[in-house]
Amino acid sequence: MSETNTAAEVAPHRYTAALAADIEARWQDVWDADGTYAAPNPSGDLAGDPAVVARPKKFIMDMFPYPSGAGLHVGHPLGYIATDVYARYHRMTGHNVLHTLGFDAFGLPAEQYAVQTGTHPRVSTEANIENMKAQLRRLGLGHDKRRSFETIDPAYYKWTQWIFLQIFDSWYDPEARKARPIAGLVEQFERGERQVPGTRAWSELTAAERADVLGEYRLAYASDAPVNWCPGLGTVLANEEVTADGRSERGNFPVFKAKLRQWNMRITAYADRLIDDLEELDWPEAIKLQQRNWIGRSEGARVSFDVIGHDEKITVFTTRPDTLFGATYMVLAPEHDLVDAVVPAAWPEGTKEAWTGGARTPADAVAAYRKAAQAKTDVERQTEGKDKTGVFTGAYARNPLTGEPIPVFVADYVLMGYGTGAIMAVPGQDERDWEFATAFELPVVRTVAPPEGWEGEAYTGQGPAINSANDKLDLNGMEVAEAKRAAIDWVTEQGIGEGTVNFRLRDWLFSRQRYWGEPFPIVYDEQGIAHPLPESMLPLELPEVEDYSPRTFEPDDADTSPETPLSRNEDWVNVTLDLGDGPKRYRRETNTMPNWAGSCWYELRYLDPHNDERLVSADAEQYWMGPREGQPHGGVDLYVGGAEHAVLHLLYARFWSKILFDLGHISSNEPFHKLYNQGMIQAYVYRDSRGIAVPAAEIEERDGAFYYQGEKVSRLLGKMGKSLKNAVTPDEICAEYGADTLRLYEMAMGPLDVSRPWDTRAVVGQYRLLQRLWRNVVDENTGEVTVVDTEADEATLRALHKAIDGVGQDLANLRFNTAIAKITELNNHVTKLSEVPRTVAEGLVLLVAPLAPHIAEELWRKLGRTGSVVHADFPAADPAYLVDEAVTCVVQIKGKVKARLEVAPSISEEELERVALADPAVVAALGGAGIRKVIVRAPKLVNIVPA
Q1: What is the DSSP code string of 355-376?
Q2: DSSP per residue over 887-930, as a string?
Q3: Which strands sit side by side in the sheet containing 220-230, from one edge to the other?
Q4: pLDDT in tens, 595-605
Q5: What are the C-alpha distances in Å from 823 to residues 277, 589, 846?
Q6: So what's the pLDDT on residue 543?
Q7: What share of the chain has pLDDT > 70, as a percent?
Q8: Which CATH code fits 1-34+760-883?
Q9: Strands 96-99 and 220-230
Q10: Euclidean distance between the first and final Cα of the chain, in Å?
Q11: Ordered DSSP codes for 836-887
Q12: Where are the alpha helices (DSSP H) in 244-393?
């Protein structure tokens, strides 16, 4: 018989795991039946009490969970419990709170499971969702369940498709700095207000030519461009889905550069706004810095170099136009379109053997080099200190400032993903260019004077310009900043360049060669022109397919191309539709959207989840997310999730919000005003001599060492997870202690934004806190309430109101661990009372309510209160009891404590000195000796220096 059961027999009404389970299940049912957590909208079907809607609001969100088949371990609910506590506190402080949770259910895991088992992704995903919902419900999370949804619901992804069409039918107007409908751009072309590229008028272009022109402007466009092709997954990946060592984040397969026709989002058009608007967001500085670095704004100039003997020009972006006089060669990325155009049939006379790569012709050299470069990752190509490789194209360009011919190379250390994919190489001022120039015996011209005694290598520091003059421009003697401005002005005047801003950010690759994702609402006519489906045809639902898997290839086989699951369903792909000009045959897009699409806008669906007529009602969006004082861009009031989404999800969601804002669909320019990154719950991982993880639950500890089945194992703190055999499920803890104990323990482990180790043995501490709380209100033998209707003594009132003040401040600022410490201190004080006043018991229950809602609800009802504690007012602290009645003053003589005095906090220095010198212990310690000095620091210290 367990200790818990024995105690329960002795005290039948003791707070035990069994009683906790009964209380928790019962109140969860009541909350669901009563709609306790339903948040009213200002109008519409979800309208509630106008008095409630008139309250200040709080929109609190967790990052979208993905419903894994493994279910939750105790690390997963950390953020969910935290937002729940925060939401409960704000309900009790008079706020209308919107807090709910949906599920981000498209994506690769479900598809891979379908491939392995033959189970439809929807079946496995919905089963995972139901399991996760049950686990979360057991934790007592106060979600408005009417607002929950899954991204795989056609009613939801109808609007994901609708947003895509808004983006497709828009262009970014740089003069207005906003997105505008593409129809307005077409009108400009038709009226001749905007020049069509080339010499022809808009009316002279064919339909296909017009589509190509508009494709250069659309915010969602298809193009043949270099992409990250992953043969092992059978799909292309966005830059953000490729690891630093050039492999896929999922599966760790090699990723190669390939040129494929794919859908893209023109996120680069918003680069400036994405950086600038970060300033007004209440986000961790580390996350802001990551976004700024990813966007990578740099100022400089675009300069054109004539290719000798050709009509082509090579355009470069440089942040150092002051070094143009030192450009002694040029480099094109292997993928650059100009490479084929400038390569001559034969090597020019005098070509150095080291420049040719041993090839017979420039074309052979370039082809061989390109193939070798294709097998390298971007990181490998740019690794500092590696041997620089490249081949001469056989072409020369002309330096526009010196007039000298300079050779054009192809080299893999230049990437198409930054700038123009071409550089002017200045080996005197750039370390990589110096290394390349050294390897290929190219000249070096310094344009910035290095310090005296500088020998060899590139100099990248500050200094006066040298070797930088021609008959029209003289930069010599200028410092770098002045020389840069002068160089930009000169190339602009000459018509060979202009000052500009460049970004590291690339357009967002938006196609995936997968089945389990949102279908594109796009069809192609016989000329290959893309046509958007009308809104009346949305949602375009996923068809059934026999094989869910895209065609995959050997991971190292770069010479392959995608084949999608949807392309095999010919009846779905080839359709007859009437798009307004009569029935015609079309071919559907067979790629699907990436898993990020559904999470780009889900905060808006929470506001108006059953609206079939529009994306979101204007009044609901304005009320919950519109701009207001302190939140100039609007957005969610608190968004909690992991720091791993610093770039991907957060950047994409901000981009979509800005487009929807520009087009007038929403009033919020940013999706998330305040972002908070919670830490991670870690656990010990135990490994045997082979390095294989062994079950943590079966480890024995002996004399500071750890053993599994008699074998000594190593222990290291790391992640918690099923594969590491150290996962603890919330179900286990709830069964042994109750959900309220789990909630308290996770919030008490440490600051929310710091990672912390899980220790099941320590959970009992919070369990005992709740048991003491229960005993302070309920007799364990009779079950009767034991509080008395008498006034509390002054010490208890001070303890109560100090706790109210401190806990309120802590809950408002997400300091849950310190809030629990203050509650524990108050609870311990109450435990020592012979009788517990009702007002003190009720105050204690209200303080506990956001953190441990089930036991609080039960005690609130036992105390005779009607109505849910969820909507009770959080207690207000009486300022009169926040001031200490007395403080302890230490009296020292020669640095040693001789007395401790209880004095008023407001005592003056003169009065404190008088009291201290009159104290009998001080008089005895002085023994009649004179006093040379008395140092007083009222009210806490008196230091006496004898004569």
Answers
A1: GTTT-SSHHHHHHHHHHHHHTS
A2: EEEEEEETTEEEEEEEE-TT--HHHHHHHHHH-HHHHHHHTT--
A3: 235-237, 220-230, 256-265, 508-509
A4: 899 999 999 99
A5: 40, 59, 11
A6: 94
A7: 97
A8: 1.10.730.10
A9: unpaired
A10: 72
A11: -BHHHHHHHHHHHTTTSHHHHHHHHHHTT--S-GGGSPPP---GGGTS-S-E
A12: 271-276, 285-295, 338-342, 362-374, 378-382
- Please, are residues 496 and 140 in contact by the beta-carbon 8 Å criterion? no
d(CA 740, CA 766): 9
Q: Which residue(s) pair with 303 in the sheet?
A: 316, 497
Q: Give domain 297-503's CATH architecture.
A: Alpha-Beta Complex (3.90)
Averaged pLDDT, 714-734: 91
| Helices 853-862 + 764-777 axis angle, to 10 | 10
**Mean pLDDT confidence for 500-524:** 92
Q: Smallest Cα–Cα separation from 323: which of 396, 390, 402? A: 402
Q: Using alpha carbons, select from 79, 43, 190 the residue that is nearest to residue 746.
A: 79
Q: In the predicted model, is pLDDT for residue 695 greater than 80?
A: yes
Q: Dihedral of CA 201/205/209/211: which sign?
A: positive
Residue appearing with tokens 């005992």: 768
Domain borders along the chain are 1-34+760-883, 297-503, 887-946
> Beta strands of 16-65 (E only): which ranges?
57-62
CA atoms within 13 A on the CB side of 316: 25
CA–CA distance, 814 with 856 (Å, rounded to integer): 20
Contact predicate 710/319, CB 8 Å: no
880 Cα distance to chain centroid: 44
Q: Please state which CATH number belongs to domain 887-946.
A: 3.10.20.590
Residue 630 confidence (pLDDT) above 50: yes
pLDDT band at 646 (very low <50, low <70, confident <90, very high): confident
pLDDT tens digits, 257-302: 888 889 999 999 999 999 999 999 999 999 999 999 999 998 999 9
